[in-house]
Amino acid sequence: MYNIALDLENDENFCIDLPPELGNSIERYKATLGHKVNHSFQPNAEFVLFPIHPILGSIMSLAALKDIRVGEEILVNYGYNYSSDPDQPKWFIREWELFHGDGKHDEL
What we know:
By secondary structure, the chain is α+β, with helices and mostly antiparallel strands. 14% of the residues lie in helices and 31% in strands. The protein is built from two helices and six strands, in the order ββαββββα. The strands form three sheets. It has a two-stranded antiparallel ribbon. It has a two-stranded parallel ribbon with strand order 3-6. Strands 4-5 form a two-stranded antiparallel sheet.
């Protein structure tokens, strides 16, 4: 399952859940490719709400945080919070500990 969530104002959030049969194939789902972007604690892009898609209405999109060179991987911070919710995927815990150091579980 692919899940993209964006926290909005007033405790609201916007979420896209794609079942694997759609999320695993860009032939079956390509309204946005944001679900294919990898995580980084030093991102060069972020998820934003694009509210005026002519067919789908509000969709998640990506906005660059800096100039991105041709061929450079686009990376976002997934926004998981290991300090408030330690039940995170193993790959994320490993990356958190590599980035923040073992035992340093501060907020993202």
